[in-house]
Design a protein that fits this description.
Blueprint lengths: L5 H8 L13 H13 L4 H7 L11 E6 L2 E5 L6 H9 L4 E5 L18 E7 L3 H8 L5 E5 L1 H15 L4 E5 L12 H19 L1
Parallel strand pairs: 2-6, 3-4, 3-6, 4-5
Antiparallel strand pairs: 1-2
Length: about 200
């Protein structure tokens, strides 16, 4: 059984010259991987060098577009709140798109993240579930689909006028109410984001 030492990886993290690993969202997995590498007697130097050219996987906190003061993040793989909370913890000034087919008995605990969430945008066919999870905690808008969510976000960007905005698509639910799978859902978010950026920014 491997018990990762998070402190060891945290000390090593500063030496990794790859912005993908600067985000806290990767720390838990990377602590495990670093502990595993030591079992195989892989040196620190080799471990660090191997990560220089690593690109993050699609749909997993994928930063795919930056325009002016906006960063667009595709985290479509997040199919539960437990998965989404890592994205929320790693992001500031969040315009958060969520919604889809919720996991049974899932609950959203936003206390530690709500200060960083400017507004949320609920999509999908289970609006009432997500509305119940976020109301009285954060500001929300019922968008129903990705296109309407992004249109409203661009309107709100002009109102809130924050710097370093993050448009985060981390649905905290499965995709099957509106999409074939999370990959199709993520690709549609990226397509619509690029389309609306040309139109609004």
């Amino acid at each position: 059984m491997i018990i990762p030492n998070t402190n060891e990886y945290t000390k090593l993290k500063a030496k990794i010259k790859n912005p993908y690993f600067k985000m806290n969202i990767n720390d838990e997995n990377m602590s495990f991987i670093y502990s595993l590498s030591k079992l195989f007697n892989i040196s620190k130097k080799s471990f660090i060098n191997s990560l220089k050219s690593f690109d993050g996987l699609p749909h997993r906190y994928e930063i795919f577009l930056k325009k002016k003061n906006c960063t667009f993040i595709n985290d479509s793989k997040a199919t539960s709140f437990n998965a989404t909370k890592y994205a929320l913890a790693s992001t500031k000034n969040i315009y958060w798109i969520l919604g889809g087919l919720p996991k049974k008995n899932d609950r959203f605990y936003l206390k530690n993240f709500k200060k960083d969430i400017i507004k949320s945008y609920i999509i999908g066919k289970n609006v009432n579930f997500f509305k119940k999870q976020v109301k009285n905690q954060i500001n929300y808008f019922i968008a129903k689909n990705l296109n309407k969510a992004l249109i409203q976000i661009f309107k709100d960007l002009a109102i809130f006028k924050k710097k370093n905005n993050s448009i985060l698509f981390s649905p905290a639910s499965a995709s099957f109410d509106q999409f074939l799978n999370f990959e199709k859902r993520g690709e549609e978010f990226k397509r619509l984001s690029k389309y609306h950026v040309k139109k609004y920014i």
